[in-house]
Amino acid sequence: MTIQNKQSRFIIVLIGIFFIQACGIKFWYNRLDWVVPWYLDDYVELTSQQEDTLEKLLEIKTEWHRSNELPKYVSMLNRMEADIKSGAIHQTYDRYRRDMRGFYNTLLAEMSDDLVAQTASLSDEQVKQLMDNLDKEAKEQYEEFKETKEEDRQEERIERLEESFSEWIGSLNDDQQALIKEMASLLKSSGEVTYQYRSRWRDAFRTALTERTTPAGQAAIKSLIIDPYQVGGEELNAIRDHNGEIYKEYQLKMLRTLSAKQKRHLLEEIADYREDFEDLIDD
């Protein structure tokens, strides 16, 4: 659900946390006011006043999200559950992709002005610290990427896909594992162009930060938050579109192969998420 981009975590880390796909979502959701500052500390050391402002902002936005957005998630999961049971999911799949993109965009729109204001409060020293840490992390990731052979990357891709599908439907049979290998072979590698994109994004962000206290600079920062792929380039966008269609094709193929046990597992996972969201709404 989530669209994660490590080099921009300082400004959109909240997005990912709201869409955590792991056990303990209720635990983390109710502790965002201290989790996020702690997480950001790896990138920039905030002053006490900045931390207090951020914590108050997170409290306000969490309550907004709890009352305004979580009920939408519950409604979507109810529809998804019904569509899976009836077999209509193949006709409504695109709607769920649009729904989740809409949730993401709504959260960005709600948070962007406040995130820009937080960014504008950074000192020159903090900006340098932030960008140095982002550059260092990107360099380490790129070096690791270059040192990994393509066949090893492919194996890692297959393992990630198997783990993801297993989380939702349980143990995979031989035919499903074969489908995943076929799927992985059709996905286009975006590694090199992604690192180029991230470098352009950091350069654009670095430039915008030099004018972070001006309307023009703040507009540029907000634009990079709302539409980070504006600097992605045609090649990366084409790869993303291609891979998105492959994911759709093979997720639907996998749904057609589910055993009764796997279907129950999937419905139980959806019910667990719905229960978590409902509990958070009632908190």
From TrEMBL:
<protein>
    <submittedName>
        <fullName>DUF6279 family lipoprotein</fullName>
    </submittedName>
</protein>
<keyword id="KW-0812">Transmembrane</keyword>
<keyword id="KW-0449">Lipoprotein</keyword>
<feature type="transmembrane region" description="Helical">
    <location>
        <begin position="12"/>
        <end position="29"/>
    </location>
</feature>
<keyword id="KW-1133">Transmembrane helix</keyword>
<dbReference type="InterPro" id="IPR016875">
    <property type="entry name" value="UCP028200"/>
</dbReference>
<keyword id="KW-0175">Coiled coil</keyword>
<keyword id="KW-0472">Membrane</keyword>
<dbReference type="Pfam" id="PF19795">
    <property type="entry name" value="DUF6279"/>
</dbReference>
<dbReference type="InterPro" id="IPR035440">
    <property type="entry name" value="4HB_MCP_dom_sf"/>
</dbReference>
<feature type="coiled-coil region">
    <location>
        <begin position="124"/>
        <end position="159"/>
    </location>
</feature>
